[in-house]
Amino acid sequence: MKSLLLTVTLFILVTGLHAQDDLPFLSEDKNVSGIWYRKVMVSDRNITEQKSHVEEFPFVVRALEKGNMLVTMVFMFEEECEQVKFVLEKTKKPGQYSAFWGAKLMYIYELPVMDHYIFYSECRFLEQKVYMGELIGKDPTENHEALEEFKKFAQQKGFPPENIIVPEQRGLGHDDI
User: Fold this and answer.
1) What is the rounded distance in angstroms from the CA atom of residue 67 to the CA atom of residue 2?
2) Which of 18, 67, 75, 115 fits as disulfide partner to 90, beta carbons 3.0 to 4.6 Å?
3) Which part of the chain is the Lipocalin/cytosolic fatty-acid binding domain (predicted)?
4) Do residues 61 and 70 make contact, with C-beta atoms less than 8 angstroms apart?
5) Handedness of CA 26, 103, 166, 70 (dihedral sign)
6) DSSP one-letter code for 29
7) Which candidate, 3, 78, 81, 74, places its Cα nearest to that of 38?
8) Residue 68: which of 86, 90, 101, 36 has the closest Cα?
9) pTM higher than 0.85 for the full model?
């Protein structure tokens, strides 16, 4: 009887863990180079208090060799536009990338909605871990189907729904990135 209970418990645990990541990782043959928009973001920390009005600029991803990617982002810092570039290095784990000397681990999930992905990241800051999820897309307009998929993902990962932020999109000319 105990072995049956143990078997059932293990089956439920494995099924539950599998359900957390039921979206496929970015496939090896996908090229995600181009201009992207961060449409929605969520964190395990309440960042809505710090950012009552969030503006997002498009960012550029360029494919490099060995599956690595160069990311160029623009953001506002003290009322001025700042640009940052960093490399997402492909790790041995499927769908996983590393940046900033391993301080940030990112998983890229493909959504069933065309040209939409979820970036799920774990960042280490001063001995603390911060988890974030971001819905990105090729088009700045809202996509209800992608938003619903993102909300399901956020719920599966345990993010509080009140921490979901929909930023205002700001455009840049291609020469600005």
Assistant:
1) 47
2) 67
3) 33-170
4) yes
5) negative
6) T
7) 74
8) 90
9) no
